[in-house]
Amino acid sequence: MKKSIITLGVLCCMLASCQNKSQETMCTLQENPVVKTIMERRSIRKYKPQPVEREKMELILQCGINAPNGQNKQSWEVRVVDNPELLEAMKEAMAKGHPDMDPAMTKGCFRGAPTMVFIARDKSYDFSAYDCGLLAENMVLSAWSMGIGSICLGSPVRFLTDNTECLPYLEQLGFSEGYELCLCVGFGYADEAPAAKPRDWGKVQYID
Ligand SMILES: Cc1cc2nc3c(=O)[nH]c(=O)nc-3n(C[C@H](O)[C@H](O)[C@H](O)COP(=O)(O)O)c2cc1C
Prior knowledge:
By secondary structure, the protein is of the alpha+beta class.
C-alpha cells in the first residue's frame, strides 16, 4: 500500500515536471525500466542496519566497472567496507580529526549506510573524476533497481583526507600510489522513502 502510494507520488511528480512533453515521452517514462529506475531513485540517509549481501554488492560493483570511462583507462580504484567495527572506527577518527566541528556532521557523514564504497581517482589522468562519477552512478542505479538504497557522499572525502587522525584508515584502504580518494558511496536497505527533490528544467536548452 505504502509502496503504491509512493509510486503514484513519483509518477505524479514525473507528470508534473514533464507537463510540456509529449504523450509519447510519458509512455516511455512509465514503461522503460531503466528510465523508471532513474526517475524513482532518491538519496537515502536512513538505513536498516544490515549490510548489503556481498553477492549483491558484487553485481553492483560489476555494473560500476562497466561504466563508460575515458580511453577505457578505468582510472579508478574501489574499496568496499562492510565491517561495522571498521566503519565505526573511521567515524570516530573523522570526529577526532575535526574537534571544532559538530560530531553529527563528521561522525554522521556516512549517513548510517552499513556498506561504504570508497572510490579513488588516478591523479595523473585529467578525466578520472568523471570516470569515478560514472562508476558511482552505475552502482547507484543498479543498486536501486535491486531494491538497495544509496547515497553519494563528498563530505567524507574531506573529513578523511584533511587530518592526520584518519591517516591510518586511509592507509588501510590501500589505494595505489598516484591515486586519491575522490568519492564515497553508501549502500544499504532504505529505512525512509524521501520525496523527489525538484529539478530545474530551465538549465536545459536545445540550440538550433
Ligand atoms: C558529488 C556528490 C556529493 C554529495 N555529497 C553528499 C554529502 O556529503 N552528504 C549528503 O548527505 N549528500 C550528498 N550528496 C547527495 C546529494 O545531496 C543528492 O544527490 C541531491 O540532493 C539530489 O537528491 P537525490 O539524490 O535524492 O535526487 C552528494 C551527491 C553528489 C553527486
